[in-house]
Amino acid sequence: MGKMLSYCGNNCGECPAYLATQKNDVEEIKKISNEWSSDKMKFTPEEIYCDGCTIEGRHFSWAPNCDIRICCMEKKLENCAYCEDYICDILKNSLDKSPSAKQNLEEIRQNL
Description:
- The protein is mostly helical.
- The chain has one domain (12-105).
- It has helices spanning 16-22, 26-36, 45-48, 67-75, 89-97, 99-110.
- α1 (16-22) packs antiparallel against α2 (26-36).
- The mean pLDDT is 95.
């Protein structure tokens, strides 16, 4: 089985929220919500559950407002690697923070 990638190229199999959700590990979800929270932004455990943004199911609280996700869904793309506008400004900001996501998308593009 290949990697399960988000629209922006992050590997869900490396995401603590995704892994805890798949194990239905309530205590781990609570731990992640505390770790990811700050004085400026608090996350409840319910906001952490995620089955991956590219499939139906539970999504991390920011997923519905993610510009990358919205764009890929509108264009009916599996992820950004398949986009004719790759690398757009929206994606570039995300990839600047996640070199592994860029590598994942680049690998897909090499095989198109």
